[in-house]
Design a protein that fits this description.
It contains 4 helices and 5 strands; from the N terminus they run E-H-H-H-H-E-E-E-E. It is an alpha+beta fold and about 150 residues long. It has a single domain, classed as Thiol Ester Dehydrase, Chain A. Strands 1-3-4-5-2 form a 5-stranded antiparallel β-sheet, covered by helices on one side.
Length: about 150
């Protein structure tokens, strides 16, 4: 189990990858972000995307799937997250892309009000198969301290 005390500022983690499929892009868009450039080749061709692109929110969801699978497998004493900062969609994500999720811990802080926990911030970078950043954000995670 990984606890607050095990984390080091500057540590880098590769969480894994995610294959983006056309079917999933269309399904997500129909359900959550039904803008024409997420649903129609013809409409997407009229935009700067040039072809159907995944919703940025879908990119977030795919990224979370990669992170959650890693954290469950590697047993982190996480307590959830109060949010993220500085979310940016850098490039479109297209069907056929492979997303790669990496992080660098930039800060860790003990809780002043809850001595049994702390938090850490990580700069997150999601890249495509060409190592081009498609999304960046700062993750904030709550985590237990090692039991006495």
């Amino acid at each position: 189990m990984q606890y607050f005390e095990d984390l080091e500022v500057g540590a880098e983690t590769y969480f894994g990858s995610y294959e983006v499929t056309r079917e999933e892009v269309l399904e997500f868009a129909r359900k959550y972000d039904p803008q024409p450039f997420h649903l129609s080749d013809e409409e997407a061709a009229k935009t700067h995307f040039g072809r159907i692109a995944a919703s940025g929110w879908h990119t977030c969801a795919m990224t979370m799937a990669v992170i959650a699978r890693y954290v469950v497998k590697h047993r982190q004493a996480g307590l959830g997250s109060p949010g993220i900062d500085q979310l940016r969609w850098r490039r479109p994500v297209y069907p056929g892309d492979t997303l790669h999720v990496r992080s660098t811990i930039v800060e860790k802080t003990l809780s002043r009000s809850k001595p049994e926990m702390g938090s850490f911030r990580s700069d997150m970078v999601v890249t495509n198969q060409d190592d081009q950043p498609v999304m960046t954000f700062t993750s904030i995670v709550l985590i237990r301290r090692r039991p006495d």
